[in-house]
UniProtKB/TrEMBL annotation:
It comes from the Eukaryota. Keywords: Guanine-nucleotide releasing factor, SH3 domain. GO terms for biological process: Ras protein signal transduction. This is Bud site selection protein 5. Residues 32-56, 139-175 are annotated as: Disordered.
Amino acid sequence: MLEPKAQLYENNRFTGSTPSFTSINASILRNSPPHSLSEDATPKLVSNSNNDPIDDKTPLIGADGFIVETQKQNLLPQQELSNKFKRLSMKLQNKTTTGDSHQFMNNFQQNIEKANNLNAGTNEPTRESAYYKKIHETFQDDEEPDAPSSCASSINSSSSKVPSSDSSSFDFNTSKDDSFALSGNRIKADKTNNEEIPIRKDLLSQVVTDTRFKDLSEEEKIKLFIATKGKLNNNNSNTGLNIVYDDNNASHLSSDGESVASETSVNGTNAAKVAKTAYEAATMAVAEQEEEDLSSLFIRALHPFDSSSLQSEADASICLSFNKNDLAFVHTIDESGWGEVTLIDSLQRGWIPMNYFAIAIADDEDDYDSDDETKIPNSHYLKPLFHSCGKFLLNPLSYKTRNNKYTFSIKVVNSIRDGVRLLLQETDCLSRSNELVTKRPVVRKSRKTLLADWYNLMVKANEFKNTSSFNKIEVLTLMVYQVARKAVSFLEIWSVESAKVGQAKQHAKPKATHDGFISYSLLPSPPLAKQRITEINGILFSYLGLILGRLDLIEHNQVGCDILETITHQIILLLRELLYISKVGSDFTSEKPQDLDASLDCLLSLVSELVTTVKALVSKTFNESAKEKVDSFGSPQFNGTRDYHYTKEGGNLIVIASKMVKAISMTVTSIRKLLDVTGDFKLKGGGERTYPDYGKMRIEPEEFVRKCSLGIAKNLNQPDNFKNFSVTKPYKSNRYSLVRSGKSGDLGFTESGANLMQNILTNDTTSPFSISTPEFQQFASSESNGASDIKNELLVDSSGNLLGASFKGLIYTLTNEEAPPDYFFVSTFFICFRSFANGIDLIEELISRFQMEILDNSIAMKKRRRLIVKMFQIWMESYWNHDADYSLLTTLINFFNEGVCIILPLDGLRLLEIAAKLSSHPLIENKKRYHRVNNQLVNRSITINKKKFDRPPSIMSDEESVYSMVDGYELSKINTNSSTSNSITALPLPLGIGNQKSNAGSLLTKSQLHTIENLNAAFRSILGDSWCESSDKKYKPIELTTLISNWFKICDQTWVLSNYRPNLLDFNGLEIAKQLTLIESQIFCAIKPEELLNQNYTAKRAHLKMAPNVRTSLLFTNCLSSYVLESTLQPRISDKLRVNIVKTWLKVAISCLYLRNFNSLAAIITALQSHLITRLDGLWQDLSEKYTELYEYLSSIIHPDKNYAVYRSKLRKFLVANDYNIPIVPYFSLFLQDLTFVTDGNPNYRKANTFLNQKLINIDKYLKTSRIIADIETLQISYLDTEEHHPKRYSFLSLSKTNTGGSDGYFISPVPALQELILLELWKIIQLNNSEEDRAWKLSCDIQPRDVS
């Protein structure tokens, strides 16, 4: 394809001239005959210009430095670059090359030119470059020594020395049944990787039966087999490609071209050592899957070309001459139609006209066209090899070592190795015992030559591992070119010879077989394992997705049940083949994933349940009465709010299908791990082993829906009512929604279902769910002015911050591929979207964005769709409301199965797996609806989690001087006037006190613990089952979560008690503070974001029970304050004891401060600041100065002055220091105060800055709300030293787990008995206050009467 180009091209690396493509084209044009095509079909161009001999051909140079094309030039005939080469040009532009590779390729080409010039006078008839001889040269290292080859042996060789150029140095087994086992021998990428080489168990039979090695374990036998290359006796019957190199025994070629090796003697003692060394040196590298196919970089000449025919010497100097069928490797393609290539035979690099060439690898549909001599027959067999060679040649120095030097990629070399193996496997020449190899010497010789070059490449690559020497990289590059040449030569010879003996692979009509009650087509040849696994996984998920999302079309429908039986039968076929692939893969290696057998057992068990459940459902359907299965068109709600109730059998089927999705995912993952070890392989063929063509037998969702709908239409009651039906609102999600509603005997249709039935009745030959059908044309979307129109629905401030938006505008911001949203905005949206929309609105907008097409920008559309998929994933995993969103689940499943999987298969399967986890509790008729706790599949934080560090030296170092007086308050002692007056002495300060960094344990004696347990037992006997289940007489602690839940319930009940004396202060105040902190922390960490939205926490919405944990926190705080008042004002105690009680509460308060329990601190100090206590003058006069100062200091911390400025400054330090995971219990009421201020102070909507003045959602209000909630979430860190109390939080961008556990120095040891007593004591005071109104005021007046004056 030749096109005039007006720009000088200055990349000539061969001469100093700078010829243009224009002059090259002109040269060809002036030499063209007046005919458009010659007899040999060589492409030529007709010149329309007048050949004026005095016409000045001097190019005119414009001001911009480029050639100005004249009118004559514009009249020259032009040709377009073919689409294939345009795509290839784009592919080359997207590939990056390291600077070292670029420099290497320049040096490499210069060396080739020198060698070719020196060889020019020899008059050799071949066009092969003389530089290929360098492969067999030996040279001294010109760089630092490479890594020791003994650490990275890739071949089963006893020496790392490179074999000589003589082919006799290669030792090939001569046994008739021997073949080359390419699997399992790879260059070792990392010397610390000691994976076993995959060994087939049937190859170990000689080791097992040999009495010399009977005491060896199976692993040692495998090592011995590898070390001795399987040559344990004279009877070698290996299969596979066993290439052996032995320095110590000279080998020679036999008469038939095969090399003969001397037998290696094995000594039982030394064999173990050799085995260990060889085993540690061998490894299996995982084959790398590439997104782009690079095999198209190899092209083949369709016609000959002589560059000397060009008139310009400068043009001829950079252009190459070539013959027909010459193979070349493409480096660059210019838009003018010229390409820079390397001719693989001559290794010359230069420019060629691309329309003289075609891609060497033909399309699959054209690959068997033997009449076309320009094509390589069966060229698709070369595709994996050419892809790997192309990857190496594009960027030879692609891997960066630890020394910041570049070297070749071991993975790429290994993939070349796999390409040769696949070529031999496809041609059935993997074994030398093959009939074609045995009978045709030319095939045998070609195969031998290819394997010799392949072996040289692997040995050299192993020796040159980690090298940066250009000399060594040149050798590897030449070897890669050589392997590519020999592979083409082998394939051409094999194709010709195999045709002669009738073994050529032809496109035959697929066979068919009959299994049970269905017949299906078969594949003409066995497939590859990895490809088959992917196909089976996709079909299984599709069928299970139909069961989960479309069961309403199957139940009460005999046609649907027939299709269900067919699907079930195909599922069994698919799983049977899945099991077979895992068995075949396991036979190739003794090392398989540990969870493979368990996942297969689980899957097989579920298959049995599936068959049983399907039979039960089908039997029920066929035995139903007419009333149970007739659908009626009536007035039932058509807006989707009426749910569909599954039958008992249908509900069981959904539960089993959801379990099967998980089991299949686990099984496929395990099998893929197995294939990573063994490498990909072609499944066995022949005999009775056949492989169904699932692509032809598969039931597509569209066909499934159409057939089931036709079956339902037959049982319609009053079908004429559908004729005039019209949809109230054309949701795009209607095509994925439930069709039916109601239950057995009361079946109806949803609005989308009625619309579907209307279409079926009017025209049953058209697929109702095709986007091209008329009823869905109104839903089709295109984005023409979407970006500009949406700006009118967004309101931003001067800094670009989003203030308001319509719901559509929010979805646009959420899925904007050009500017993806930040993490915090995504969290805010999903936390708050139910405040201004509902789930169906969200689904509708996301589906609309997913289906909207962007003209001429498929890359942007793909990015957007992946972003939409990510939003669906985040919603279902972390923000799913099981009650509110349940009715949307089938719509989502159908969209994933019928919409996403078509465009993004892997993403669709991942979403189906998540949705299946949420489908485990379907709505079943005549059964109470299951209400699930909103436990999310993945706990995500509102803000991105930062890296967590160890605890800092001190968070409050500026106040250590104040805290150092802790010892003066004798926190380790209890009230000396209490009934248990024993003091605890000589105990260290516990957690967080002073400079202590570790937990000192409980401060209670055994006798005190026994007393507490007795008190609890007395309460338990009174409360009975309302508190805990009756158990043995021996006291057993109860989980704190259960205690808190039961405590909240009994606080609403009325009980009559005989003893109301406060007993809590009879025990150590510091231990009380510790257990108070654990209780408060448990309640605080349980608070969910949804409890803090829409004022759900307020008293006016308490009856809705939408914020249970918030209500529990507020109740506990109020009860603690009441308990402080009651204990201080209790009657019939002395003034001295009353003073001591105040001191004890001050000790508890300061302990709470050191434990960072600000909520209990506030509750205690607020109670002491109450007028009921401050009015008692005598109490405060008797209080010592030390405790008075302590009271004043603690009061200043939670003083409301300047909106609690002192407390907020302290809290800010902990928020900043959250990277250290410091547990804290904040003053929670202030958070509620802030939330109330934001909610009441900001409107729900804003007005847009447009002439329409429409209302926009005030997203700024919800962003502010989310920031407060994020601060709460940041502080939700447990004091408990157990993994289960540190929830794992995830980032939706990276989906990685981050443990948010705290440092050991902040843990508190729980005392369950004391925690129970605290809750029961607080409950007792509630009962006391409920029984007597204004009790605290009366007690205060009894101590100090009112001053009536």
